[in-house]
Amino acid sequence: MRSLVMFFGGAVAMALVVGALAVAGVIDDDPAPIVQASPPSPPATQPNQSRPKSTGGSESISDIYKRVSSGVVFIQAGQSATGSGFVYDDQGHIVTNDHVVEEANSFSVRIGADTKPIPAQLVGKDPSSDLAVLKVDPGAVKNGLKPIELGDSKALEPGDQTIAIGSPFGLEGTVTSGIVSSLGRTITAPNDYPIADAIQTDAAINPGNSGGPLLDGNGRVIGVNSQIKSGSGSNSGVGFAVPVSSVKFVVPQIMNGGKVVRAYLGVRNGDTPDLSGAVVGGVVTGGPADKAGLQTGDKITSIDGRQITSSDDVSSAVAARKPGEQAKVTVERAGNRRTLTVDLGTRPDTPAGG
């Protein structure tokens, strides 16, 4: 049963001239495999490396769980795939991961403590952000819908409290806790494009947690649990969530069948050893960067005055722009610095080769 995108690997060698190529508008990494989940079992709690007993405020993790868990959803996608989600509004919209629903055409959900499955309809999906929206009839929910409040992923800092609720291995109602381990990560979407500004957390996330909410210390959604990095096929303390800023941008556009349009630069790039920029590893022929004069080997040092230290920064800078806008891209080439004006294009549905 498909339930969680995985990154497999051991220790990552630091200071590579060009690491695994990430893309600002194009990425050519291999698709991350999906881990299979076990059949549904009774609710449980998971052990975790970091187990803070309170959020630092007036509510304990237990209090937050009691208040918020009624808005967490167990999703059955097709005959075998399972995942998690959360109630977005009182109209019946449920947010989950695209990779939870991508190969199914029938869906049922169990919301909160309700044990009776109710049918759901897929009303929107966006592979580029790994987000999807299901919809249920609000009248079919026994105890009514309890939307979970959205927080602010842009206000997070490393060390902030995190709480994950979902159905790892089919164990519904599981809660784990930890901290924000890092911010500004880039992960790979189901269609191989980069997802910028992902949240890294050590809260235990396992197959089946996909699509479930990552909460802050006040019980507000700060991300959608999406991927883990593991060499064993299960949690190793490195989980990633799509930031709630992406939810706020994407969901209103796709919840009624719409499509998200994104800016496109058209380069592949990697990191420099000293994190002084992003090295262009390839330029899409005829793409915006190519037309503006960017070349393979250029080191991008800033975009619109924003300092670029890595390929992740390029992805984030392009993601913040709109198609048709101009971007000032400063590069170093053969010891000389120059600023090129790029007319950003509209990103295609799938990456092009660089």
Automatic annotation (TrEMBL):
Q: Where is the signal peptide?
A: none
Where do Polar residues bias regions lie? Answer: 51-60
What are the start and end residues of every segment in region (Disordered)?
Answer: 33-60
Claim: Protease is one of the keywords in the record: yes
> In Gene Ontology terms, what is one molecular function of this protein?
serine-type endopeptidase activity
Going by the UniProt record, its keywords in alphabetical order are: Hydrolase, Protease
Q: In the UniProt record, does the keyword Thylakoid occur? A: no
Q: Name one GO biological process term.
A: proteolysis
* Domain (PDZ): residue spans on this chain: 248-335
Q: Pfam families under this entry?
A: PDZ_2 (PF13180), Trypsin_2 (PF13365)
The protein's name in its UniProt record: Trypsin-like peptidase domain-containing protein
Give the species.
Solirubrobacter ginsenosidimutans
